[in-house]
Each structure stands twice: as structure tokens, then as C-alpha cells.
Known about the structure:
The chain is of the alpha/beta class.
Amino acid sequence: MPYFRPMQKHALHLKILGLILILMGSAARAQNYPDRPIKLVIPWPAGGITDLAGRIMAQRLAERMGTTVVVENRAGAAATIGAEFVARAPADGYTLLLASAETHAIAPNLRARLPYDPQKDFSAIAPFAINPFSLVSRPDFPANNIRELLALVKSQPGKFSYSSAGLGSTSQIAMETLKGLAGLDVLHVPFQGQAPAVASLLGGQTDFQMLPAGSAAPLASAGKIKVYAVTTQSRFFNLADVPALKEEGFEAMNFANFFGLVAPAGVSSAILQRLAVDVGAVAQATETRAALRKLGVDTYPSMTTQEFQKFLEAERTRWGVVIRAAGLKPE
């Protein structure tokens, strides 16, 4: 039988006691969570669809959890600056990230030196919204439907330009994919976020954009843009008279961003489950869906934390295939 000297026994007892105290402290923190404001980092500038949808979630999550949820915009580098900030934050449940295709699916496939690991550095909580894209142009562009647009652009290679929310954004990848499928030669003009990209389009500095459908609908109604097609496999609720690119023969065009919440890796399972239950309940509430639909986005089907984690991994693989097919290489 193993023989422990008194000092060894004492050291072992101290280690066990320390572990018990850590577990008790963790349980107490989870039981009292949240006891101070929660920070939701949105890795895009204020004013875009991602920001506005995130603020709806923050407000309704605060009401449900009985605490303040403070929104902090940390924009730059196609959302990776904000994502890195949260990845390095304390794993206590008080700093969360609004994750999207950019942070967890596109950046891992486009950046050779990503400052975080999308799988190891985060704990998935839950998705809450889906944000399809639409192909739009400035209002005076001389094409009235998608076929006229493609024919005109192909007849004048290099003449036209498109704006995007940034290098590595969903809007860039969607347009680059369409360029490859349709054989278009169009100049890419990236911006830091959706709002300045739209401003360039409305000001006539650029010709096209893959714009979130929620932003496109009111701009089209006001006569500020033309909308030619949506990037999903079927028509979207707020642009019912606009065809899907699949209808025009582009079967591979299936682009919709997702919005969800993640936390730094290491958050206790109790806190993670509390967040998942509350985020899921808020996302599926009738009033949340109504608020999101006013923005032109829709609620995402509910998922467990495990299902959302698998979804993030599957999206990273799917977008990798899309990016390579578009001829884009990591930088």
C-alpha cells in the first residue's frame, strides 16, 4: 500500500481543500450571476444591421436577466479586433461577443495570422438572428433587372466598382463569388463597416453592393437604390417581389449572415447554461422577432450550446470551400 508521510498528507489535504474552495466559489458566483453589468462587444461600427440587431438583443436580455447589458462597439479588421478583445477577456460571463460569419467562419479562412482561435478561445451560447444579403446598385444605374445588370457589366470590364463592409466581410465574399460565377470584372472598394459602404453607394462613388436585405428594403422604397436579387435559396420576407439568385441560375449563391452570442472559453457551465437559456428565450419571443423583422432580419431557430458549437464549426468549413472557390487566399 502507498505510504504517505505526515507532510505529504498535509499537502494533499491542502490541495483538496483548495479545490473544494474553488468549486464552492465558482458555484456561488454562478448562483449570484449576474450581479453587475454585462458587456456585449459588437465588432462593427454603430449604425449597421449587426449593431442594431445586437442592441435589440442587449436591451431584451437586460430586461430578462435583471441587469444592465452595455453595448461596446469595437470595430476594425473585419470584426476581428472585437473578437480578439473578447477572446482575451476574463472568463466570468460578463464580457460577451456578438459572433457572426465574419468572426467565426470567414476570418479563419482568410487571415493567415488570426489573433484568436475561433474554436478554442470561445464558448458558444446561442444564435439569435439571420441576415440575408441582396445585390443592389445606385438608383441611376442603367439596368432594371439582374440579367440586364450582368450583361452591362460583362460588356464593360473594369469600369464598375462595388463597396463592401470590409476585407473578409460577408458582403465581399458574396460579391466575389458572384463575380466568379458570372465572369465579372468589378473593382472592390472596402470600408470599415456597412454604414460607410452604403454612404459610398448612395453618394455615387461606387456602383454596387451586397447589402443586407434589411437595409435594402427601406432604401429601395425611398428610391435610393435598386435591388436586383437576394442571396438566399428562396425569396426573403421583406423583399418578396425580388428574385433569389438561385432563380437566375446561380445555384451556388446561398449567403446569409448569422448573429449569435459567444463568451470567452472557460466560462463555468452553470453561467453558460444560464446565458443560453436567457438568450434563447429572448430570441424566440414574439416581440423580439417583431423588432428584428423591422430591421429586415429574422430570428434564428433555437439551438443548444452544443448544437451552436457544431454549427459554428460547420460554417467555418462551408465558408472555407466558398472562399477557395472564389479564388481568395489568406493574407
